[in-house]
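Example 3.2
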Amino acid sequence: MKKFNLFKEIIVVDKNDFLRAANAAKRFAITYKGEIVYEPFEPSLISIFEGSIPPVSPLSTDRSRPISSMLGNNYRIVEDDDRLLIKASGAWQSIIGYNQKRALYDDTSGDGIAEFSDKKLEEYGWHATEFNIGYRDIVEQFEAQCEGILLCIEQEEPYQFSGLGFVFDLEHARRVGFEYCVETIKEKLENDEDFTTLTDDEAEAKDYFLS
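Structure, written as tokens:
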């Protein structure tokens, strides 16, 4: 998976496409790749903005509106000929709201990852906890082996991280997650004396992965 760190990334948008969307008076999204898409949004959408641009009030004496202000104060927009360069890290809380329901996992709180949005992977995660395999352990396999995007804000000093994970091939992620759990549980059964005798829940988890 590739990190897309909004503290570092600049989203490049075609200026004319943006102005068409802004004047369309309907909801649109800007993807992390800088594409403009309109509702209905695909479940695979990863966006840095969703909404519509309100029209200028007919009572306003100033009919012109700078592009830099159209997305609100949390976005920084620089015009560069026929392109717009957007910095979106200031809008992170809004971006979480846009994407949370579409992400495979949510790592935006200090409590860590609590669940997977995919039902099958959530089954893996739930059973794996019986062998002290955490969601973070499984996610590290995704981040190392799967194609996808970790949409995040991350800075070193003072350290700050908040992220949402998306994989592009869910079936591959399921295989990676399952195989990791199988191999880890086998290793624990062979070498970890805490699992010499299994509880009913541990035995159920063993059967789930190893039967």
